[in-house]
Structure formats: structure tokens, C-alpha cells
Amino acid sequence: MSVSIRKAKLTDIHELVPLAARTFPLACPPEMDRAAIEQFIKNELNADVFADWITRDDCYVLVATDGAMLVGYTVCVEGELPDNAQLEMDLPVETTVMLSKFYVHPEFHGAGVSKKMMNHLMEQYVTSKQEWMWLGTNAANARAIGFYERAGFQHIGTRTFDVGGVVAQDVVLARRLPSL
């Protein structure tokens, strides 16, 4: 396995959409209604949404590849703060980036892809004006929470998150970004 990390291109969309459809359900609680998950994927992880993210100046989309196969992706959005949240601290909108998506194909779980992607993100933001990164992940997703904690994120609150019309409970984690 020789995983490479790079900025996403519009030509990646044909692989990003099925990867998102494959990986998003893994982050949902097992009891979540499958129709709600499918509705979320249809509305929030389609080709138009990915094209918008890739072309926006306030978004950074990266992909992890193993040869020609796309095996992971992230989406970061600058200036987005948690909605429907109860937070223990305030994040400054001008210098905060939301780690909106962070997914790896299940066949590559445990292979170091997530760590490589996170390291790339930290390097990406080290010279930016961004000071904080936050994310929300399902409260029952212990594997993801553990990974984020090992990457320096700390619990700062909770939020509700709409998945295809079904309300899910998330933890909100944040970390200060490295700087030069």
C-alpha cells in the first residue's frame, strides 16, 4: 500500500460520490433508519455538492489515493461554527475551520490512512490565519472519537445533527491548529 494525499480535483467527483455513499453509513449509529441515511447521502453527498466544495475558496477538499483508487477524503470549511450546539467554549468565526467530512474506505481502516490525512490537514493550515479546527461526530462513534482525541481534539460540547430528517446526537471536538 502506497497512499498519497492531495487536493481534490473535479475529476475526482465520480469516485468521491460512491466513496461517500460507502463510508457515511459507517459513522451513523447502527439503529439509525437506513432511509434517513440514504436521504442524507442523496441530498448532502452528491456530485453537485462535491463540485461546490472543490471549487469554493473557503473549502479545502483532500483525497487519499492508493494507486488509482480513491480511499479517503476530507472536507474543511472555513468560518463555519456548530449549529444546534451546547458548547463549553466559544470559537472565533474568523479563525475557525470546520472539519466537515473525514472518511476512509473500510478496507483501509487501521492502515494509517487517517493519520496521514490528518497530518496533511495540520500542515495545510499551519501557515493560514486559521487558529481552530472543530468537528462533530456521532456520540456513539467510539472509534472516530478515539482517533480525534489521539490527534489532539478535545470535547467542547454536544450538538444535534439532522441525518435525512432524523436527529442524531453528536459530540463536538476542537483543537488549536499548529502555527509557525
UniProtKB/TrEMBL annotation:
Cross-referenced SUPFAM superfamilies: Acyl-CoA N-acyltransferases (Nat)
Gene Ontology molecular-function annotations: acyltransferase activity, transferring groups other than amino-acyl groups
Pfam families: Acetyltransf_1 (PF00583)
GO annotations of cellular component type: ribosome
Ranges of residues in domain N-acetyltransferase: 3-178
Coiled coil: none
UniProt KW keywords: Ribonucleoprotein, Ribosomal protein
PROSITE patterns recorded: GNAT
Claim: Transferase is one of the keywords in the record: no
Protein name according to UniProt: Ribosomal protein S18 acetylase RimI-like enzyme
Organism of origin: Enteractinococcus coprophilus
